[in-house]
Amino acid sequence: MHQQVLPKGNISRRYWTTLTWFQWLTLVMGLYSFQHVYTSEVPVTTSEKKITSTGADTTIKVSAIALHGEPKYPDNFKHFSYVNPSAPKGGKITLSALGTFDTLNPYTLKGTSPVNTPGFYVYGINENNETLLMGTTGDNRVGDEYQTAYGLIAEYIEFPSNYEWVIFHIRPEARFHNDTPITAQDVVFSFNTLIKKGHPRYKLVYTDVKDASAVTKQQVKFILSGDSRRSLILRLGELPVLSATYWADRDFAATTLEPPLNSGPYRMTKVEPGRSITFERDEQYWGKSLAINQGRYNFDRVEYIFFQESTVAFEAFKASQYDFRIEHISKQWETSYSFPAVHSSKVLKVVIPHREPASLQGFFLNSRHFPFNDITAREAIAWTFDFEWTNKVLFYDAYQRSHSLFANSDLGSFGSPTPEERKLLSQFKLPSHIKEKAFKLPNIHDGTIRDRQRIALKKLRSAGWRMQQGKLVNAQGKPFTFEALEYQQSSSRILLPLQKNLKRIGIDMRIRIVDSASYQERLKQFDFDMTTLALSQSLAPGQNLKSLYHSSQATTPGSLNLSGIQLPAVDQLLTMITKAHTREELQLYTRSLDRILLWHYFIIPHWHLNYHRVAYWKHLQRPAISPPYSFCFECWWVNDQ
């Protein structure tokens, strides 16, 4: 259960991981599948009609549930179509990570674990525990299906047609790394522990789970309530399973640098706090024969080296200190890959297309703080940010502007509201322009940057701001000054032009660069005015949006409602999203939500790519097919020839 944050630089994709800080969601197995769904009213598919009937009671036992239609892979499939099932096992690789870590427990608010550092989740090899199901999370996603999940620890699930409960049937062969079996009691312990001592987001996501109990050693039952029970089954499938015995005499809420007991394909074997961490493939891994794991997890040894700065990390890559790099800085991609190893083809530079939703990337403005408690002040940032100049001069025209918070997706708003959207928006108390007009970010069609600065100043004056000795002040004489918080020096090249544009209209923006740990802690406590982020997004958003936008999360430390959004219309739409019956309903609700948020300028969207820029040393090999919805680095292998 984790939300991903994406790396910085010009942050085409900035990788924050899952539910500790910068994360959320997880799953895995091969004979049974399970798909992301939206509501307790979705009709069963053909594959779900495997039922047992006892009088009036009908129980559905499923090997697969798909969001739309049927899962791609049948019960007896051998491997995913995009992997190389004959990929050789073996080899050692070194990877890079940004920032640092001070704990190996990724499930609490306290500390930063490796998987919760920018960029880490994309590798698919980390300290996360195995989950009941796999397929819908950033670090263990089915790569070629639209939100389908398959069993991992759970072999299959069963539930009644009204979804009032669900039973997960645990594989008898599932084991922790100390060879003790994973039991229903471990699942119950995990659920209760995460709710009580884990990151606050767990409590939010599992609010409608009323009870968890071990029916037998291999069966765990959850009692569900609310209007999104079917979707809630998916969220339970993403539950990481902890060992109740291991944690019995340990403080779960405390930070720890002792590798916790896990159950996945890799073991943590060496830890240098804050500097490096090493994983070794477990030859006895209980799930290695599952169809979903064929052609995956091929490296024998994976070492991560942590760098504080991306520029230092790039120099280390050129010096062959690590093997693989996703490039997030367009200037670097265009101008810096001319070193000898590239010319001699020892380093391969490739572009890999994808159809993943663009990250939620932009300037996040904290409406809890002055001056961004004023909507006109937030809008002024949009008018003074010159994307066209930034894209041309800094990014070599590499990017498309994101005009939606759901960019590169069919869930984002565009043009004027449709009749259906107007009807829905009319239910809420909103300004008329949100219901009637198309939202567009200021651009070259609004004139030069000086023209846009004048427009911004005019809007600010209409809202009560005025010039006083060259400084913009509000009606109380308080100057328009704020701090832009970042953790990488490279962010300055984006912020300095904005700072200059703001200064011309009397606004003072200070740029503050702090270390990664301080940055994350300040964001957890909402101790910032503006920051630049890129959060990964789901193909089928639901409960995860509540952490981003729901008013209940505006005062919850560690939540991703960084802008402090508290709007009744947004809260109601978030509930509707979790109840959507069809893709069309989901589109209606997300597009309406998008319009409300955009018009309030809590987040000023940036830009996006629909491909990955990748460089790697040629002893690494990758499958011939690149899946559209997942990078699947764990599908790569080492060729020592």
User: Sheet bearing the most strands, described?
Assistant: 6 strands, antiparallel
- Radius of gyration using CA atoms only: 24 Å
| Strand-residue proportion | 15-25%
- Classify the helix fraction into a percent range: 10-25%
Low-confidence stretches: 1-47
Order of strands across the biggest sheet?
A: 4-5-11-12-14-13
Shape: globular
Average per-residue pLDDT, rounded, comes to 89
Q: What class do helices, strands and sheet pairing give?
A: alpha+beta
> Cα distance, first to last residue?
39 Å
User: How many helix segments?
Assistant: 17
* Strand segment tally: 31
Description:
The protein starts with a strand and ends with a strand. The strands form ten sheets. A six-stranded antiparallel β-sheet has the order 4-5-11-12-14-13, covered by helices on one side. Strands 25-24-26-20-27 form a five-stranded mixed β-sheet. The model is unreliable at 1-47 (pLDDT under 50). The chain has 17 helices and 31 strands.
